[in-house]
């Protein structure tokens, strides 16, 4: 049996994850070093897909998903002093107790929803905006939200400067979703919760898919997929063990 991969947007050491780290990378341009590291990272993601196939049921991710990761300058979404580590296959702290997700997990969650060019996707847990940028290259529209106002402001400015004009960012309680733009073809949640918030299920389009880590903070968590069929019936299954920061906020506001 495969050992559970070390994954997620979160669960660095408490001190590292909680420390505020001001400022993101000063330049968004790709250097030759960045390009080399990016190609090495993509190869690692391909290898990890093979290694985790018994969990995920897939030995490879769609070429367009990997192309999306290749197109996004991850160093632009990490603190400037961590640029040299931007293309490592692991999460990094971005301040406010949050992290940028491990690239393998970003690839997996993106691949799980099988994004189409006409899809409208909701992301809960914007963080630095990296997952939203990857999605933006694959779908028609991305709505992304985070409960941390400072992260939302920074992510919105970063995404705008990078030219992702099909992404809209807002502050808010992710448990309540973003009903104004529902229903969504897919919903990705980048924080763990013991139970799936009912509002997110309600905002998922029939035929749509929700990907979310289930479990309490600092306890066993599992990445799960919820499918809503055309009659509104739900089917849920697990994918693999993960470790995410907790989804905060209440289901009733």
Task: Give an overview of the whole structure.
The chain has 253 residues and is an alpha/beta fold. It contains eight helices and nine strands. It has one domain: Rossmann fold. Helices cover 29% and strands 23% of the residues. The strands form two sheets. The chain has a seven-stranded mixed beta sheet with strand order 5-4-3-6-7-8-9. A two-stranded antiparallel ribbon has the order 1-2. Helix 2 (32-51) packs across helix 5 (103-112).
CATH superfamily: Vaccinia Virus protein VP39
State the CATH architecture: 3-Layer(aba) Sandwich
What helical percentage do the residues reach? 25-40%
Distance between the termini: 42 Å
Quickly count the domains: 1
For this structure, the CATH topology is: Rossmann fold
Strand order of the largest sheet: 5-4-3-6-7-8-9
Q: Any idea what the radius of gyration is? A: 17 Å
Structural class: alpha/beta
Main β-sheet description: 7 strands, mixed
**Strand and helix order:** HHHHEEHEHEHEEHEEE
* Helical segment count: 8
**What's the mean pLDDT score?**
88
Helices, strands, pairings?
Layout: H1 14-18, H2 32-51, H3 53-56, H4 63-71, E1 92-95, E2 98-100, H5 103-112, E3 120-124, H6 130-136, E4 141-146, H7 149-162, E5 167-171, E6 184-189, H8 198-202, E7 204-214, E8 221-228, E9 234-242
Parallel strand pairs: 3-4, 3-6, 4-5, 6-7
Antiparallel strand pairs: 1-2, 7-8, 8-9
């Amino acid at each position: 049996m495969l050992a559970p991969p070390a994954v997620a947007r979160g669960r660095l050491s408490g001190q590292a994850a909680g420390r505020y780290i001001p400022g993101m990378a000063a330049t968004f341009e790709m250097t030759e070093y960045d390009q080399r590291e990016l190609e090495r990272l993509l190869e690692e993601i391909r290898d990890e897909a093979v290694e985790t196939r018994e969990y995920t049921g897939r030995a490879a991710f769609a070429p367009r998903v990997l192309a999306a990761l290749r197109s996004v300058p991850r160093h632009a979404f990490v603190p400037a002093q961590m640029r040299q580590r931007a293309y490592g296959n692991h999460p990094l702290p971005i301040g406010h107790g949050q992290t940028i997700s491990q690239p393998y997990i970003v690839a997996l969650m993106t691949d799980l929803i099988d994004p189409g060019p006409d899809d409208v996707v909701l992301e809960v847990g914007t963080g630095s905006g990296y997952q939203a940028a990857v999605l933006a290259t694959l779908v028609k529209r991305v709505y992304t939200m985070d409960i941390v106002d400072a992260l939302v402001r920074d992510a919105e400015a970063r995404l705008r400067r990078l030219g992702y004009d099909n992404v809209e960012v807002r502050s808010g309680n992710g448990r309540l979703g973003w009903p104004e733009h529902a229903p969504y073809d897919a919903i990705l949640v980048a924080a763990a919760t013991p139970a799936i918030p009912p509002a997110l299920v309600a905002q998922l389009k029939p035929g749509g898919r929700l990907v979310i880590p289930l479990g309490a903070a600092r306890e066993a968590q599992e990445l799960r997929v919820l499918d809503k069929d055309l009659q509104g019936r739900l089917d849920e299954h697990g994918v693999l063990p993960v470790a995410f920061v907790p989804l905060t906020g209440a289901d009733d506001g």
